[in-house]
Every structure is written in structure tokens, then in C-alpha cells.
Amino acid sequence: MTEKEKMLAGLMYSPSDPTLMAERHKVRLLFHKFNHLSEEHLEERTKVLYEIFGEAGKNLFVEPPFFCDYGSNIKVGKNVFMNFNCCILDVAEVTIGDNCMFAPNVQIYTATHPIEFKARNSGKELGKPIKIGDNVWIGGNSTICPGITLGNNVVVGAGSVVTKNFPDDVVIAGNPAKIIKSIDNS
To answer: Among residues 25, 32, 36, 113, which one is catalytic?
Structure first.
């Protein structure tokens, strides 16, 4: 397997692989351009944004600055809004549903490292995919940890650290996040 295939399969891989380094460099050039285009160049900025993401539906709007590892592993539905300073470490697939809103400073991390120091010191890492359902609102300064699935219609309170999966129709908050209440979306 190539290092990229290992990465996408959730296996230990070497991030210093030349192919992976080239892909990260390419997206850094794109998000640098995106982050520095002014409001007067909104159409061009939007075009660059669609080049960054692997898949993106209609009405995607991201406030700069935005950062990611690869971009190609991010799949976004329609009507998605990301506020200032969103960072998505997409060494594994990140799927974001329709009608999602991210407040400022939302961090989504698929990247992780071994807990055993010898393996961690090897320089290798791994990733776990993240899936965010439809109609999800993630509050400011929240962190979504590797391997997490959030159901549909979830609200994540500001400053939360999401370390486990949550079902549809709940408000979660805290560090670690826990269910605060259910939402009646009937």
C-alpha cells in the first residue's frame, strides 16, 4: 500500500511521504490564496474554495481564514457556513451534511497519534474519519476529535470538546461533551 492508501485506510502512515507532502503543499497554496482575497474578489474566493474541498454542494460559504491538511478528503453538503478560523485536519475523510453552521474557531481533527511513546516517536501517525449529519450547528471554539459521528440536528455548545458519538436531535456541551437536552424536531 502507498502511504496515502494507508492514511485513508486509518493505518499508521508516514506524513513525510513525498506524495503526501506535495498534496499538503498544493492545498496550502490554495488556502493561502483564499485567505488573502478580499471581499471585492468574492467570486474568485468562492471558486478557490471549491477547488480546496474534495466535494461541496451549493451555497458553501467560508469566512477566511480557513485551514486544512489536504482538502480533498473533505466532503460538504449544500448550504454550509463556516465562520472565521475554521481548521479541518483531514488525513481521514470528513463528511459534513447539508445545512450545517460552524461558529468561529471550530476545529475538526481526524489526525491522531499513537499513545505508546515509541510508536509516537516514530514520526508516523494515523487518522479516524469524522461524520457530521445534516442541520448541525457547532458553537465557537469547539473541537471535534478523531473518529466522531454527530447525528442530524445536533447543536454543539460553544467551547465543547466532542470525544464520543452522539445521536440525532440533541444539544451537547462541555469538556468532554455530554447531552444537555433532547430537541423535539417533530
So the answer is: 113
pTM of the model: 0.96
Tens-place pLDDT, residues 37-69: 998 999 999 999 999 999 999 999 999 999 999
Q: Which string of DSSP letters, residue by residue, matches 59-101? A: S-EEPSPEEES-STTEEE-SS-EE-TTEEEE-SS-EEE-SS-E
Any catalytic annotation for residue 32? no
Topology annotation, domain 3-179? UDP N-Acetylglucosamine Acyltransferase; domain 1 (2.160.10)
Strand partners, 66: 86
Indicate the domain borders of the chain. 3-179
**CB environment 10-26: b (16+ within 10 A), e (fewer):** beebeeeeeebeebeee
